[in-house]
């Protein structure tokens, strides 16, 4: 029994190691060549694995892209939340978090994998698990700001969805633009203006 448990654990560890290797290799290949040009045979050979390992872990190339997008998008959300947490208060944090997420669209890896290939292959980003996690964090912040009397007493999920959608669409706009650097300040300024519309009007 112990031997069988040990073998199962070893097999599980090997699968996890293979998964990590494949995601790292795919992240590099998708960033350098784009999703459609990246060769799965080259990718698996680079990490000493077979196509079988890829199919076993991700089913197909699309599944591998989904895993890579999830990893990068989650990293983006964590980074944005860290920046927001240093902003001083919940309201400034909300603005800083949104602006940080938008600014990450200047990163070539983020542009190509998450904002260009991701939606083209995986569909509506608002349906991605990583975006849903980000939405829940924003919703929690909105609830706090409503409770503090800073934001209007709107439905927290509705407000969070619109704020998240605005930041995501701004990032998509930057990624698709021929001059991302000139688009960034316009996008951040508009995001701040939209968010300010949720503030309670003070006489």
TrEMBL record:
It comes from the Bacteria. Keywords: DNA-binding. Residues 39-58 bind DNA. InterPro entries: Homeodomain-like_sf, HTH-type_TetR-like_transc_reg, HTH_TetR, Rv0078-like_C. Pfam families: TetR_C_41 (PF21351), TetR_N (PF00440). GO terms for molecular function: DNA-binding transcription factor activity; transcription cis-regulatory region binding. Residues 16-76 form the HTH tetR-type domain. This is TetR family transcriptional regulator. It comes from Rhizobium johnstonii (strain DSM 114642 / LMG 32736 / 3841).
């Amino acid at each position: 029994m112990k031997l069988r448990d040990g073998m199962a654990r070893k097999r599980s560890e090997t699968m996890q190691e293979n998964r990590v290797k494949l995601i790292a290799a795919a992240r590099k290949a998708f960033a350098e060549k784009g999703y459609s040009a990246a060769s799965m045979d080259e990718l698996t050979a680079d990490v000493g694995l077979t196509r079988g390992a890829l199919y076993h872990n991700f089913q197909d190339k699309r599944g591998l892209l989904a895993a890579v997008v999830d990893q990068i998008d989650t990293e983006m959300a964590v980074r944005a939340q860290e920046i927001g947490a240093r902003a001083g208060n919940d309201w400034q944090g909300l603005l800083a978090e949104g602006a940080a997420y938008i600014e990450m669209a200047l990163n070539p890896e983020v542009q190509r994998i998450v904002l260009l290939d991701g939606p083209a292959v995986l569909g509506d980003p608002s349906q991605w698990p990583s975006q849903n996690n980000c939405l829940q964090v924003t919703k929690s912040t909105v609830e706090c700001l409503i409770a503090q009397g800073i934001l209007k007493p709107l439905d927290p999920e509705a407000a969070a969805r619109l704020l998240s959608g605005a930041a995501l669409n701004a990032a998509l706009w930057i990624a698709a633009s021929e001059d991302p650097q000139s688009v960034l300040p316009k996008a951040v300024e508009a995001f701040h203006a939209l968010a300010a519309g949720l503030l309670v009007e003070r006489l």
